[in-house]
Design a protein that fits this description.
Number of helices of chain B: 17
Largest sheet of chain A: 5 strands, antiparallel
Distance between the termini of chain A: 50 Å
Radius of gyration of chain A: 19 Å
Order of helices and strands of chain A: EHEHEEEHHHHHHEEEEEEHEHH
Largest interface: A-B, 31 and 38 residues
CATH topology of one domain in chain A: Enolase-like, domain 1
CATH superfamily of one domain in chain B: Aldehyde oxidase/xanthine dehydrogenase, molybdopterin binding domain
Number of strands of chain A: 12
CATH class of one domain in chain A: Alpha Beta
Strand order of the largest sheet of chain B: 3-5-1-12-9-10-11
Largest sheet of chain B: 7 strands, mixed
CATH superfamily of one domain in chain A: CO dehydrogenase flavoprotein, C-terminal domain
Strand content of chain A: 15-25%
Structural class of chain B: alpha+beta
Oligomer: heterodimer
Structural class of chain A: alpha+beta
Number of helices of chain A: 11
Strand order of the largest sheet of chain A: 4-5-8-6-7
Shape of chain B: globular
């Protein structure tokens, strides 16, 4: 583990930070300038020589670390709000328990104390081949090939993959945010824009090194969560080998409103199985206006894994993901 | 001060917190890589990225010109490194016998091919990355199928030679198992697979090498300073007087740090060439490649029994993978011949060669994997017989060790089983799969027995009585985190009858009198006789001083008219005792010391007794098929390991071993990738181990019968036995809960998905 030398700057304001990063030809893999927030992904990958920026821009002192309730009922979460602060915030615990649960089932207490909201949105895959520079990887070095397809792929994706990349997105927080229909707010050289969560992450296709719509100079300033839906129940269920400190083999974030035994509104996202936090409107449509019964959940679960392309070691994730979703829906639909 | 057995000690046997605890929790304990020296350089190895082939070219031109770089070493310039005369008796043990860079052949992935040395760690790392190595690559063999079935024809006399296997051996044989098996009422033939496992102590292997012009001082993460000195002196070609190895604190080793690995010699060679101290700490990935592992093992167990559950035959055949150059044998059959009464038995073994690093001992080598197979087979047999597994074991309890025909020095397995069953509530177990429920979860209960060898290594110790009323005990053993400092303080305090707080324990330095390796669960049993003798001799010397020194209140007495009692000298006839510190002060002496030695009996060719520890594990798992969630809920372990010197440290050893067993059974496996031959999950996120949240409710019961054939206190070892048998107990509980019969470890979610969705 070693790092090459790099310049380190602490910009006085967002404008300087944005200008500094905009010098990089890309904001994706291979960026020559990187923002540093919690550093739990970036520093790790720099030690592994997977990331090698010439310049690191520390944004921890920018005023982006607040959580506030907005007049329109949305919750605004600053980019550098620590995962532990977000998970334990009273408004999150009250209105968005799925988000709190997802964060608290990820990583360890020490990592959550460092990791940030924006950093977690940009969390990189844990694919072994991506993290080992002795191995080929299209995501790390485009055109070198994907060693995972015929290699150790137990943990990797079954949905959204391409022949160039089967890496999965390891974030728990993102799965909850997908189900909550969060909006990501970015300030870039050309001004501000709001990106719906579903449009933030990209499919690998032929360009697995392009992971998000973030462009050079784009600084994530905050995330907003829509006002909580009255009467909804939300939860996060994560399945993994050991009881703690492991990435999901399959996980489900569900936000459910049930009235008189019928599901009136459903938002569902899944983790561990997709190349990005996996949410489809079809699964939600299969639940909405249906009775809150096992049959409904079964049908939604079948739909959730439709089109799955298992690899040599991860076909079990199809059945595991189904059981995960069915159980999460069952728990969410239970009368309090 | 005769060496009679002490049957009612006052300090030994009492729970005591670690005497080195304050040093550790305040960060003052100096681990090997904590040592720094002026001008010290950093070394980073370059690791092969193929598992089989040859180095065609090493291009160091770029690396050599990088900032801070002092040298790039490789086959061409490392200098002479010698092979070692490997011997257990002489404590010159090494598993990877080839010195680093000896030839240009790559035999396993990650093998060191060069070493970058620079002023800083970062510079050395950057230089290591800049070394360009060109290989001629050949297909590596990391095949998991080992072919244990080929051992079926191996006999002591007139057997066949198995194809594609090496070193076939009959380890133990009695009676005639084949006909007994053929005509038995109930038989079982099962093959069990254990993956390679990596030790993964949190402290990485490290060597800080200091060269003074004629000799070396190595601060090394070793479980055996004397062995490391002997081996590295040979490898570096210096007299062993010119090699000093220091290991004051160890962030555990689990066997992986018993014998030196290639990086030790590299650090030392670099320090000598550059005439500056060199620090080499290997990285986590190298921990999976270059410093040993428990090998992949395939075991076949064939049992036969009468309808009543009396064993009529037992065959145990096993093959472990080993590296291309070294014959590491995992002695899985170590416990098989003495565990149960069975007239017809054969234990057979062989090796299969693979492109992997050389395997080594991992906590409970042999017995841990062996008992997973044989105890699992006993549980499967019990199910076939529709017999309670505890009863099956009780029905086959032997009178003597039927393998060696020797009496047991002390065996209380029967009581382990009955006590464990009672405390666990075993009588409430209903045998049908999935039949026990609690709080909406299915329960599974399982059990297994365990055993571990009880022997002693040789040891010499010195005890010094000092004028300030303290005493020091020293020997060249080391504390690998198990509590050796504390146990030695207790033993010395017991003998001198002074408070533990007055004892200084000095360990972990090969310049001290030779002490045992921290391995085989034998350190405690080994040091007791030597320390007792040394303390006795120190007290004798003191009596001599008391009788002769002009200022002594006892001047003019005869030494044998004086006695050493409760840290004081007194006349045998009675009268006021004088603390030994006072005597020394009056005699104007700093201290008196005595040295004591004891022989080992580990290699004794004609032992009088079969000496082993025993135990039984009882396990409860919870099972939720809806989410494929299996968790280990509670484990109760009963251990018969002689007298427990420190029940607090002892409990900690058993509990830690059980938690390691949770990892072994459910999570741990080093996966060699076909194609590259790389141990592919070589990091702590992808090599899954038990974490705190996986720790079940743990109960440990010690039977505490002193085994006085072994030493004065009757203390045997406890470092390893807790891991023996636990996997068979857990997998039988899993079967009881889920119906899934695990014949390979770890038991994964994939395995359990196939279990009936509703029990």
């Amino acid at each position: 583990m070693r790092m090459k030398s790099f310049a380190f700057i602490r910009p006085p304001d967002s404008a300087v930070a944005i200008a500094a990063q905009a010098e990089s030809p890309t904001a994706q893999q291979g960026a020559s300038v990187r923002f540093l927030a919690g550093g739990t992904t970036l520093v790790d990958l720099m030690k592994l020589n997977v990331e090698g920026p010439d310049k690191v821009v520390d944004i921890n002192r920018l005023p982006l670390d607040q959580i506030e309730s907005l007049p329109d009922g949305c919750l605004k979460i600053g980019a550098t709000v620590r995962n532990s602060a977000l998970a334990n915030h009273p408004a999150v615990l009250r209105d968005y328990p799925v988000l709190s649960q997802a964060i608290l089932q990820g990583a360890s207490a020490q990592l959550r104390n460092r990791a940030t909201t924006a950093g977690n949105l940009l969390q990189r895959t844990r694919c072994i081949y991506f993290r080992d520079t002795a191995m080929p990887c299209n995501k790390r070095e485009p055109g070198t090939g994907c060693a995972a397809i015929h290699g150790h792929n137990r943990n990797l994706a079954i949905l959204g993959t391409s022949e160039h990349c089967i890496a999965n997105n390891p974030s728990d927080m993102c799965v909850a945010m997908a189900a909550l229909e969060a909006v990501i707010h970015v300030t870039g050289p050309k001004g501000v824009r709001a990106i719906p969560f579903a449009e933030f992450h990209l499919l690998p296709g032929e360009t697995p090194h392009q992971e998000t719509v973030i462009q050079p100079g784009d600084l994530i300033t905050h995330v907003t969560l829509p006002p909580p839906v009255p009467g909804n129940k939300s939860l996060y269920l994560k399945l993994r080998d050991r009881a703690s400190y492991e990435f999901a083999l399959a996980s489900a974030a569900v936000v459910l409103t049930v009235a008189g035994g019928r599901i009136t509104r459903a938002r569902v996202a899944m983790g561990g199985i997709g190349v990005k936090p996996w949410r489809t409107r079809e699964v939600e449509a299969a639940l909405e206006e249906q009775p809150a019964t096992e049959t409904t959940y079964q049908r939604a679960a079948e739909m959730a894994v439709q089109g799955a392309r298992p690899q040599s070691e991860n076909a079990f994730k199809i059945e595991l993901a189904k059981r995960c979703l069915i159980h999460a829906l069952k728990l969410a639909a239970q009368p309090a | 001060m005769a060496a009679e057995p002490l049957t009612s000690p006052k300090i030994v046997g009492k729970a005591r917190p670690r005497v080195d605890g304050p040093l550790k929790v305040t960060g003052r304990a100096m681990y090997s890589s904590d040592h720094h020296f002026p001008g010290m350089l950093y070394a980073v190895p370059v690791s092969a990225t193929i598992a089989n082939g040859k180095i065609e070219k090493i291009d160091t031109a770029t690396a050599e010109k990088m900032p801070g770089v002092r040298a790039i070493y490789h086959q061409g310039n490392i200098g002479k490194l010698f092979r070692v005369s490997v011997s257990f008796g002489d404590l010159s043990m090494i598993d990877e016998t080839r010195p680093p860079f000896e030839d240009d052949v790559i035999r396993y992935y990650g093998q060191y091919v060069a070493l970058a040395v620079a002023d800083t760690f970062e510079q050395a790392g950057a230089a290591a990355d800049a070394v360009k190595v060109t290989y001629r690559r050949e297909e590596p063999n990391v095949e998991r199928e080992l072919g244990v079935e080929r051992l079926a024809g191996v006999r002591k006399k007139g057997g066949s030679k198995p194809e594609h296997l090496e070193s076939p051996k009959v380890q133990s044989e009695r009676g005639d198992p084949e006909p007994a098996f053929e005509k038995a009422a109930v038989t079982l033939d099962a093959t069990y697979l254990l993956p390679a496992e990596t030790h993964n102590p949190i402290e990485l292997h490290a060597t800080v090498a200091v060269w003074d012009g004629t000799g070396f001082t190595l601060y090394d993460t070793t479980q055996a300073v004397v062995n490391a000195r002997n081996v590295l002196a040979q490898m570096l070609g210096v007299p062993k007087e010119n090699m000093r190895v220091i290991s004051k604190f160890l962030g555990s080793g689990f066997g992986g740090k018993l014998w030196p690995w290639t990086h030790c010699a590299l650090a030392a060679a670099a320090a000598r060439q550059l005439n500056l101290p060199v620090k080499l700490v290997i990285n986590r990935r190298s921990m999976f490649q270059c410093v040993g592992h428990r090998p992949l093992i395939q075991q076949r167990v064939r049992l036969s029994a009468t309808q009543e559950g009396k064993l009529t035959s037992l065959r145990h055949e096993y093959v472990n993978h080993t590296s291309m150059l070294d014959d590491y044998e995992e002695s899985c059959g170590e416990g098989t011949p003495h565990m149960y009464s069975v007239p017809n038995l054969r234990v057979t073994s062989a090796l299969a060669r693979r492109n992997v690093g050389t395997p080594t001992s991992m906590r409970g080598p042999g017995a841990v994997p062996g008992l997973y197979a044989t105890e699992s087979a006993m549980n499967e047999l019990a199910d076939l017989l529709k017999m309670d597994p505890v009863q099956l074991r009780l029905a086959n309890e032997p009178e003597i060790d039927e393998g060696t025909k020797l009496p047991f020095s002390s065996r209380h397995l029967r009581e382990c089983l009955t006590t464990g069953a009672e405390k666990f509530g075993w009588a409430r177990r209903t045998p049908a799969v999935g039949s026990m429920k609690q709080d909406g979860l299915t329960l599974g209960w399982g059990m297994a027995s365990c055993t571990w060898i009880a022997k002693r290594f040789g040891c010499t110790a010195r005890v010094e009585l000092r004028d300030d009323g303290t005493a020091a005990v020293s020997t060249a053993t080391q504390d690998i985190g198990t509590g050796t400092y504390t146990v030695l303080a207790q033993i010395t305090a017991e003998k001198l009858q002074i408070p533990v707080e007055k004892i200084e324990v000095i360990l972990g330095d090969s310049n001290l009198p030779e002490g045992p390796v921290s391995g085989g669960s034998m350190a405690t049993a080994s040091v007791i006789p030597a320390v007792m003798a040394a303390a006795g001799k120190a007290a004798e010397s003191l009596l001599g001083v008391a009788a002769k020194a002009p200022g002594s209140p006892f001047a003019g007495s005869k030494p044998d008219g004086l006695a050493f009692q409760d840290g004081k000298v007194q006349a045998k006839g009675g009268g006021e005792g004088v603390p030994f510190g006072e005597i020394l002060k009056k005699a104007k002496m700093r201290g008196v010391s005595g040295q004591g030695s004891s022989d080992g009996n580990f290699l004794d060719p004609k032992p009088q007794f079969s000496s082993h520890s025993f135990g039984a594990h009882f396990v409860e798992v919870t099972w939720q098929p809806e989410t494929v969630r299996l968790r280990i809920n509670r484990v109760l372990t009963v251990i018969d390991a002689g007298r427990i010197v420190n029940p607090l440290a002892g409990r900690n050893q058993i509990e830690g071993a059980v938690v390691m067993g949770v990892g072994m059974t459910l999570f741990e496996q080093t996966q060699y990738e076909h194609g590259t031959g790389a141990p592919i999950n070589s990091n702590l996120a992808d090599y899954i181990m038990a974490v705190n949240a996986d720790v079940p409710k743990l109960d440990v019961i010690f039977l505490d019968y002193p085994d006085l054939h072994l030493n004065e206190f009757g203390a045997r070892g406890i470092g390893e036995i807790g891991l023996a048998g636990i996997s068979a107990a857990i997998t039988s509980a899993i079967h009881h809960a889920t119906g899934f019969r695990a014949r390979k470890l770890p038991v994964t979610i994939e395995d359990l998905l196939g279990a009936p969705a509703q029990a």
